[in-house]
Specification:
Elements: H1 28-31, H2 34-54, H3 62-65, H4 70-80, H5 95-112, H6 122-126, H7 130-147, H8 156-163, H9 167-178, H10 195-204, H11 220-235, H12 243-246, H13 253-260, E1 273-276, E2 279-282, E3 291-297, E4 307-311, E5 317-318, E6 321-323, E7 330-335, E8 341-348, E9 360-364, E10 367-371, E11 380-381, E12 386-393, E13 400-405, E14 414-415, E15 418-421, E16 427-431, E17 437-445, E18 448-449, E19 455-460, E20 469-472, E21 487-493, E22 507-508, E23 514-515, E24 522-527, E25 536-541, E26 544-549, E27 555-563, E28 566-567, E29 573-577, E30 586-588, E31 594-596, E32 601-606, E33 613-619, E34 628-632, E35 637-642, E36 648-656, E37 660-661, E38 667-672, E39 684-686, E40 695-696, E41 701-706, E42 716-721, E43 731-733, E44 740-745, E45 751-759, E46 762-763, E47 769-774, E48 794-795, E49 799-802, H14 810-815, E50 818-820, E51 826-828, E52 833-838, E53 847-852, E54 859-863, E55 868-872, E56 878-886, E57 890-891, E58 897-902, E59 907-914, E60 926-932, E61 935-936, E62 940-941, E63 957-963, E64 970-977, E65 987-996, E66 1001-1011, ...
Parallel strand pairs: 11-19, 31-38, 40-47, 51-58
Antiparallel strand pairs: 1-2, 2-3, 3-7, 4-5, 4-8, 6-7, 8-9, 10-12, 12-16, 13-14, 13-17, 15-16, 17-18, 17-19, 20-21, 21-26, 22-23, 24-27, 25-26, 27-28, 27-29, 30-32, 32-35, 33-36, 34-35, 36-37, 36-38, 39-41, 41-44, 42-45, 43-44, 45-46, 45-47, 48-54, 49-53, 50-52, 52-55, 53-56, 54-55, 56-57, ...
Helix pairs in contact: 2-4, 2-7, 2-13, 4-5, 10-11
Amino acid sequence: MANARPHHGRRPSEPRSPGVPSPGADNCSEILASWKTIQTNTFVRWANEHLREAGGDPVVDLAVDFSDGVRLIALVESLSRRKFARRYSRQPGRRNQRLENVTLVLEFLEHEEKIRLVNIDSSDIVDGNVKLILGLMWSLILHYSISDQTWDEGTGASLERKKELTPKQRLLSWIKKKLPQQDITNFTSDWIDGRNIGALVDSIAPGLCPDWHLWKSGNALENAKKAMTVAEEWLNIPQLITPDEMTDPKLDELSAMTYLAQFPSARPKSSICIHRSGACAVGSGVVGLPIDFSIDSLDEDDISNAIVKIFDSAGIEKQFDMISTGNTKSLAILFKPETEGVHKVTVNLFGAHKMSENVLTFDVRGSVSAVGPGLEPTGVALLQKSYFEVQTENVKVKDLEVTIVQPESVDKSLLCSDICKTPDGHWKVEYTPLVEGLHTVNVLVNGGVICGSPYNVFVSSSSESSGSISMRGRGIQPSGLRVGDDAVVVLQAKDIYAEPKCNSISSKDEDNQECKLDLSDLEVSVSDPDGTEVHGTLEKQGNQLKYTYKPEKVGKFVGAATYKGQNISGSPFVVNVNPAVVRKSRVFGPGLHSGIVGHRACFTVDRHQDENLTGICVDGPGPQPVEVEITDNEDGSKDVSYVPTIPGEYAVHILCNNDEDIPGSPFMVDVTMAPDDFDPTKVLAYGNGLSESGITVDEWTEFTLDTTLAGQDAELFIEAYDDEYNEIEVLMDEGSKTGAVECQYKPQRTGQHRLFISYGGVNINERPYRVQVHDNPASYPVVELPVEATQVGHVSSSHLDILDDDDASLDYQALRVKAYGDGLGSGFAGHPSSFIVVMSDCSVECLGVAVDGPCKVEMDCFETKEGYKFSYIPRTAGEFIVSINYAGKYPIPGSPFHVYVKEATNLYSVRVFTGNKLFAGTDANVYVTLFGEIGDTGTVQLRASRTHLNKFERNQMDEFFVEAVNIGELRKIKIGHDNAGKVGTSWFLDRVEIDSPLLGKHWVFPFRRWLSKGDLSVEMVATVANDARMIPGFSPVTFSNNQEMRLEDITTSSTLTVSCENTLKTTKHSDFDSVSNSEDGIGSYRILVYTGNKLFAGTDANVHIEIFGEKGDTGILELKSSKRNWNKFERNKKDEFIIDIPDVGELIKIRIGHDNSGLFGSSWFLDRVEVESKLLGKLWRFPYRHWISKEKHGCNLEAELYPHEVINVSANDLSGSERDCDQSDVTDGCVKASGHGLENQPTVDSTTSFLVDVSEADPGNLLLLSVQGPTEPCQVNMTYEGNGIYNVSYQPRERGVHIISIKWGKRYITGSPFVVNVV
């Protein structure tokens, strides 16, 4: 047993030199003996060869460099090809840490690798006992380099007899077989003249040392150098022992065995020189890699008419290519081996002599091939990721090179690809084509072009039929499937839409016939390793085709999915099926099933003792690898999390033992985009049922989930498991309308239980809740304490006690008391803070509450239905301690609580009054910005109302606290909402009142109007100030009480800024007729942005602009919604933006740039910018004609532009011909819809219709339609009638309210969505 024992203080005391250890307790003369030095140097070189492969630091001194165990661990991991499951100290500073590291290695070698270690323990290595360290090194060499060796010794009884030999006898037997003409009996004296080394090299690769038999014994050092140099250069056999040491009369036997043990597995390189009488031949390789070799005449003979033949291992003559060299004294041969085995090359020289029958023999072992949809001639779609695999068998890949050449239209530039190693040892190559056309894929392995390369791949637009189908599912994963698994392949057509003029899928062709994707033209097939087609079942679900097959054999399955005979993206696919096994490790959690972009997905892996987890990886649809965080709970389980960055299907691989997927892995996770204002981490979870302890078996326990602050309405899902992985039923009471859900469960076993709580498919906590269930405490001793009861109510003290006795153990009862609330975390000086103490099912308690801090506080306590509510007002800032104890000395879970109170110097109380009109309330998210003399608060979401749980309801006041920096005297506010919510978004805002305790002032902002549906990207701001100090640097703005201002139609996500004293009337106006006159100081600026006409000139990044004038600057303005194009900043396009901002005077310059974001491209070629001001009647033109990019040389992400030309324009010029109907005017009637199908009372199962007129609209947009019933959508049929008129029909299948949505591009048309009641 390799256990740590007390050390004896042995440490190296003499200076060390490379390869020679410092002497320890051993005799110095013995250490410096010749054979000892040779052995030490050899073992050091052997260790460094393996450490180099693992990327570890080299060993210089065995006595010192292994003493901390770190490099010893790296060496053993490299040799065993296994990672240590237990943690170890990577920078051990103390002796006990070094002893623990070395003990970990020795135990691993004894118990896991079954290596017998004699008379050595961890202290010997830590103390630098060289003799015992050399013994350990020899054990490793014997096990990994000699015993664990590939021997070519035949089969049957002969092989069984040889397995009984010792490693030394076995190696000697192999050498005798290779050199039968030499009488070799030992590993010392028979090798010191170097001749036998040359003979051994030539026996493996004939021709490397053809004249070894002519070498003189007296030239021992020269012989050894020649043979060992050739072996290292052509056979990849490193010189673990030097020629000087090999020819030393005191040659160490173990060192010689270590070096010679490399020869049985040695293979010639792809090109070797073989010397024969009169000629030289070169060549070797593996299946899938062409072999090129030459036959050269050393006697300057003409061999151009020689006959060359190649035979495989079965004696069948094979075809090859003869390549002209222009030299009659040399022949160049290119041969592509198709099978493994020994191949022979024969050469017959006409008019000269015949070369040996086997001029060249090469043993073809292993294979290399490339397969996958990314190499298919067709089926690769534009801007969609494709892949292929480079598969190798028994081939060590040292260098894999993939180059993808794009079409000539992009100057044959190279396309980037990502290469990663798969769990089954192959290599996966992924790339995303950026342009259409012919691509050339070149694949080179170890410097050689594989057979079939280069591959010609034609990339087509995804709008073509086969490219409009996506394929996903566990049934196409390269690894993870096992015999008997249900393998599912899902093929799905993309969204159906129609547009006025197009010939793409689900639209109108030139004859006005509807073109829909026909799933009946989809075909799926899978073949087993024998080439037999596997039976599968097809199931059609809407626009999906689900194909399920069940593999019954182990091996490689090949599948294909075609549409009208053409491969779809991702086809063909290769699936490696492993044998069926029973899963022992347990995995559970929401991160194995679903996910949301940008939110952490979590799950737990509980490893079984018989399974050694070797890795967890997540493959996503994007080109970048998915980072995985793993937390070891040190109880056999690991908490795993990852953050998906783009939507799509993710594959979670959990690997064990030989890097194989555990049964059920990979787990397929469907990741979707996050809804607006969605934050599952803000789900409040509290209650006794989630506490770490204090839960009793066979008793109901409860907890509460509150989703009020989490944003969008999403599904709550709970997974609960006991310590034996049995699922526990959790009951949920969703009857409450307040957003709180009461949950309860009854544990049936003691031990640790785990609860995963997810909201919208995302875990609300990064780790599962771990709950310890105890036995029933009925047998606990009864404790009676003399306590005094205090009346619940106002207490003029920092300490509050509610006292009574209980007949259960007090320390156990303390664990059942819970507390939650803002008053236990943070607060503001001078403002009330509160929290609630939940007593669970305890009827009589002995409760003590104390608040200690920089000042004395008074507490109020009131009994509520949840428990007791405590409130207090901290008068000063600082840290307060809230202690909640039971029976005076037993703290409840979490106590004491640290409360951090901040100064409330800039705290505003914002009270929002919703009007008293029918449907006045809103479920949307409301935002507010406060503007003061010297700044603003920025946009603040009004999340948690202090007065109502369900905020912004009819005739209701909601109060919020807004903390901000010092913005000076309040001048105006901006308020609006985002049109989110399922029930209602229109909002009738009555007024807003704001108090500042610091200034002692109160402001009222009356409004009394609707904020209703419309363009989500248009901001409407009316600015009214109550004095002349609105914003420094700008002209003051004043209005009379009855002055009329023209605004946009009030729309959803519209924001209005209103003054403290004035009200406004609104009238409809055009985009560029907003509030702007010389007296106001507020003007509309029209910004025209021209993207250049260059390849990849457009950008998907977020563009911003800053305008500088004589009176100041605008600050950074984001250019969000273009009035001309829904997909803005595209090549050779003009985008228009209207912005209402204070007048900055004559323009001096602008600064424009972007944030380098975007999925497909961020580099942007900007041609010019034009800025128009109706207030000043001028247009400034800013030319640029250059890239704004981070990738382009000499470019930046921002550019400052100065006006090249200033043009005087009239008001008509600013709103003339370019003011035609476009996307921004849809709500003014450019697209109209009418008919019975939009009116109430259609009957169920009857066809009804309506007309959509797009004749006056911009023809560059898409018409998007949907009809949603109470539980499911209706099928919509569309017919083009001509002259821009569409006839739309649908057949409702159920009674109730139906919502008809009609969009032109990204915007709803006037009146949409329509509400129809079906009877």
